Amino acid sequence: MSQTRGLIILATLGIVGVQLTVFTQWRFDGAVVMLVWLWPLAVGLTGLTSLALVVGIVTGLLFDAQSATPFGLSALVAVALAFVASRLGKEGVGDLDSAAIWVTPGIAAVGGLLAPALYVASGVFALNFSLWHGSVINSMLVNAVAFAVLARPVTRFAFALSRSALRTRR
After folding, report:
1. Which residues contact 84 (CB under 8 A, 6 or more apart)?
2. Domain-located, residue 18
3. Most buried pick, 20, 27, 59, 119, via CB within 10 A?
4. Is 170 part of any domain?
5. Of 90, 32, 80, nearest in space to 59 by CA
6. How would you class 152 by CB atoms within 10 Å of its CB: exposed for 0-12, middle for 13-18, buried for 19 or more?
7. With contact defined as beta carbons under 8 Å apart, do 10 and 17 qualify?
């Protein structure tokens, strides 16, 4: 399990790096695709709840430390996505091999749709009203489509990294 943890954390660092250097610069209709929210969701679909929550915290805090966002807000969204996805992963709902081909992209699309709304709503509770400056609807739609497209390869990558932990758990 510790080897799996190390691989997932190493992948997490890489994904945060790709988010900060590449995806933050690309704007689709004014919205940024948030890999730092998709990755914890994908790790959550493996069914490893504690690891998914750690990944959510690490990705969110690392992203917030390097961007002009309220510190910890991205981590809150990532942990919420990771927790819900891990509940589904424990039930085998997001399994890439036994579920229908549309299930994992569907779960990811719902996560991508809800994550920006949760982020902005959480910002209001943190008394940061500047998060409303862009179109939340555009961000929701762009992330939903991007999460649906990227869900299978990212989740396949997360399953490959966690395969050793899943074998020892059974």
Report:
1. 44, 111
2. yes
3. 59
4. no
5. 80
6. middle
7. no
